[in-house]
Amino acid sequence: MRIGAIASVRLMHAGNINLRYRPPDCRAAGLGRLGTEGRMTVETKVSTKYEPEELWFPCSLDIMGWDEHFHNLMLNDRLRMAVYKKAVKNAIEPGMAVLDLGTGTGILARWALEAGAARVYGIEVSRKILDIAEANLAQAGVADRFTPINDLSYNVELPEKVDIIVSEIIGNIGDNEDCAPILADARDRFLKPGGTMLPQRLTPYFVPVASPATNAQIQRGVCKSISAEQDLQVLLDRLGVADPCEVYYDVVIPRSRHLAEPLAGRTLDFFSDGGETAYSFSLTFTATADGEVTGIKGYFIAQLTDRDVLDISGDDPVSGTASDSWKHCYMPLARPLRVKAGDRIRLDVERWPEKNESSAFAFRYRWRAEVLGDGA
Ligand SMILES: C[S@@+](CC[C@H](N)C(=O)[O-])C[C@H]1O[C@@H](n2cnc3c(N)ncnc32)[C@H](O)[C@@H]1O
């Protein structure tokens, strides 16, 4: 049995991120550069443009460290902005009370207020970013109907129940910003009976891919980032990870690199899910071509409203079908898997919460892949 990569993640409310892992066999894998202490080193280069198959800093692993650069990236993500703007305008009816959970720079709140919402409560854990939201909404002339709340949503009480909860706390495989428990808690405590969630539901998809170019960047120890604050080596040190193959990355992987048809993971239904944080599932793909599986590509398709679908599977940054901020999720395999057309490839994904009472975002992921055979 050939086994791929293992990654486990824990995001602490205090801003620490720890990753407990099995010590990887970097030398056997032949990946990454070995530093003086025998561990991997990675250089992060700041850039504003990206190309397909470029290795980018995994933004969802550093939620508490997001700064203006990342918010600017999101605000300039044409795909995200176009679909969300249409969805908010479609969902908001005049006079509605709205919760914008994770309001960030206040863009969803602004669209909701411009669409006629009576008032918007904007919850945001970062004081610095919430200050920007307040300034933006004042400039737009709608600040009098906006109530900023600087806290983690779990700690908040609202003075009333709302008609709709809008949010964009989605990671590129769905729950890798912990949206499931956060939105379940908010829905149960803040939403009127019969109220609406935006997004409504989301399905992650996974597909084995051949992207030696991406793994070569891991081997060279080169990763790109939008800001010097997002340094992969700093993140890996904070996580306690020696092998860069132990984490996933933000990478646009073109469809031409797929070695099978994508399969759906677990759908999150924000109207009914209990916010489960522990699960495991297996997917069995059939290889559509001979090749070497270097990693697993993950992405999501989200139903924002009855009419609006956000699909980040696209792969063209120039025409804007790829998402600038999400890209895709790339889960590298330390040891690529050689497959023949017709082979079955099994992927096991596991997610579970960590037992730590002081932790608000506490979860770990593990994935592994193996070839079951059957090919010609
Ligand atoms: C992906 S950003 C989106 C910001 C904004 N809604 C937008 O669409 O541009 C998510 C924001 O939610 C905040 N956030 C995530 N989970 C939160 C929580 N449980 N409570 C409060 N803020 C949260 C983060 O700090 C971040 O600013």
UniProtKB/TrEMBL annotation:
Keyword Methyltransferase applies: yes
Residue ranges of domain PRMT5 oligomerisation in the record: 276-354
CDD domains: AdoMet_MTases
Keyword hit for DNA-binding: no
GO molecular function annotation: histone methyltransferase activity; protein-arginine N-methyltransferase activity
Any one GO BP annotation for this protein: methylation
Pfam families for the chain: PrmA (PF06325), PRMT5_C (PF17286)
Keywords (A to Z) from UniProt: Methyltransferase, Transferase
Protein name: Methyltransferase domain-containing protein
Organism for this UniProt entry: Ferruginivarius sediminum
